[in-house]
Design brief:
Elements (H helix, E strand, L loop, with lengths): L11 E3 L13 E3 H27 L3 H28 L3 H18 L7 H28 L6 H11 L11 H4 L1
Antiparallel strand pairs: 1-2
Length: 177
């Protein structure tokens, strides 16, 4: 006796329903296709905006266009790298926030005061590295005081341990019961 396979329903967009389409051909796409289209359109809009801003400041057009292209290509990859790092280091989001606030303040005061590139680099690297080091120290302190912590902190640690990127550690005794 054969069992019928359970079919999974997926929302689709049926392009054959549009006016002027050929009824013999049925082209379909999932909702992910629409999401990707929206992402690519927003990428193009941001690229046009950033290219015009770069061209206004850089005299060499080849340098301006290639820097914009490489920035757009690297932006999505950088997002995924930071996403994984935020899951590994619990305080990294605060380091990224410090970097964004610093860049915003630097842009606002840029007309009045020039911040040297070495200072900018030091602050950016220091904020990211400091938040990573603080995350490691926090994790070690949490392991040290694991038996003496409040239920709220124990729940937070349990959520971190459930993450696929969490470091292996013994399960809290209260959680086993």
């Amino acid at each position: 006796m054969r069992r019928a396979k359970k079919q999974k329903r997926v929302a689709v967009v049926d392009f054959s329903q549009f006016e002027g389409s050929n009824r013999r051909m049925a082209t379909r796409a999932t909702m992910l296709f629409l999401v990707v289209c929206c992402l690519e359109i927003s990428d193009i809009l941001f690229a046009v905006d950033s290219v015009s801003a770069i061209v206004a400041q850089v005299n060499d057009l080849f340098l301006a266009y290639t820097s914009a292209v490489f920035a757009m290509l690297g932006l999505r990859a950088t997002f995924f790298i930071i996403d994984v790092l935020v899951q590994l280091f619990s305080l990294l989001k605060y380091g990224v926030a410090i970097v964004l606030v610093f860049v915003g303040v630097k842009l606002m005061i840029g007309r009045f005061y020039h911040v040297p590139a070495s200072i900018v680099c030091l602050i950016l690297v220091g904020a990211i590295a400091g938040s990573m080091v603080a995350s490691v120290i926090q994790e070690k302190l949490e392991k040290k005081y694991e038996g003496k912590m409040s239920p709220e902190v124990a729940d937070r640690i349990a959520k971190i341990k459930g993450s696929p990127f969490a470091s292996p550690a013994p399960v809290h005794k209260a959680m086993q019961a």
